[in-house]
Amino acid sequence: MAGARRAHSGARLHNPLTLSLSQGERGEERGVERGQSGALHERGASSPPPRFFVTATDTGVGKTQVASALLSLMADAGLRPAPFKPYESGCASLARPADALVLREAARSEDALDVICPHRFRAPLAPGVAAHRLRRQPSFDATLAAFRSFAGRALVAEGAGGLRVPLDAKRDVVDLIAALGLPVVLVARAALGTLNHTALSLDLLRERGLPVRAVVLSRGRPERDPSERDNAAWLERRHGVEVLGPVPFLEDPARRRAAFRRVLRPLIGAEWGVNRGAR
Fold first, then answer.
1. Average pLDDT in the 105-122 region?
2. Which tens digits make up the pLDDT trace of 45-87?
3. Of 140, 145, 248, 265, which one is least surrounded by beta carbons within 10 A?
4. 194-207 vs 173-180: helix axis angle to the nearest 10?
5. Mean pLDDT over all residues of the chain?
6. Residue 130 in 3-state DSSP?
7. Which residues are catalytic, by number?
8. What SS3 string covers 203-264?
9. What is the DSSP code string of 47-104?
10. Backbone angles phi, psi at 143, to 5 degrees
């Protein structure tokens, strides 16, 4: 919206128990540069390829739908985007992590699942909790090595749950965002309560000095909520962020995907060949 201040920023490995990457490369956080972390895309020497980290105010609010829509728009623009879902819980099959597969399909990617999703767990718990139950410590070095393998490409990384969800004994999702240095797309519910939940997340991101590219509001239920009329404007006015949506609730999956793509198209933009009329 017009009054908003926009925040801008800019080797297959495995562990047979958690399907985590091996602990080989010891980079720690210092091994990852902030920002776009790689060479510029061939479309223009002045503009790096678009890269985002998709997180949310809660679980089940639409992170995977937002991430897959962004990846599909990038793929439409010929950007060869990299899908990155480094931690996934609740996997019915460790060999086929559902969310990571959705992202890979949206990106039209042939990247190995072991790199797209190095840490997978059966238990429907926070990744750090699931790992603790298994008496495992997911290798953060492996996460960073996987991320570095996508250097120079457009990329969408998707977190697990919200910002304070533990990934291991020491780190939460917000620590991963800081290590990767990617601008954040924060997904939030469109309904009553989102002003508080979104503000808490934005405050933490601001406290950590992490750039927010946009907030995306998504309707998760068919019922109308009277607060939806005001929520976007209040978030923009109070927090100085661009707010997109709300994405309407639609029962048909294809129409729902198209709605996410329409709302998110401005984040890719005409510079990368994504026109407003495309579905």
1. 98
2. 457 899 999 999 999 999 999 999 999 999 999 999 999 999 9
3. 248
4. 50
5. 85
6. helix
7. 85
8. HHHHHCCCCEEEEEEECCCCCCCCCHHHHHHHHHHHHCCCEEEEECCCCCHHHHHHHHHHHH
9. SPPPEEEEEESSTTSSHHHHHHHHHHHHHHTT--PEEE--EE-S-S-TTS-HHHHHHH
10. -60, -45
The domain segmentation of the chain, as residue ranges, is 29-268
Could you give the strand order of the β-sheet that contains 243-247, starting from the edge strand earlier in sequence? 82-84, 155-162, 51-56, 184-189, 212-218, 243-247
Which pTM does this prediction carry?
0.83
- Centre a 10 Å sphere on the Cβ of residue 144 and count the other Cβ atoms it contains: 23
Q: Is the dihedral of CA 59, 65, 70, 72 positive or negative?
A: positive
Class of domain 29-268 as given by CATH = alpha beta
Nearest to 235 by CA among 251, 254, 219, 212: 212
Closest CA to 115 of 21, 39, 47: 21
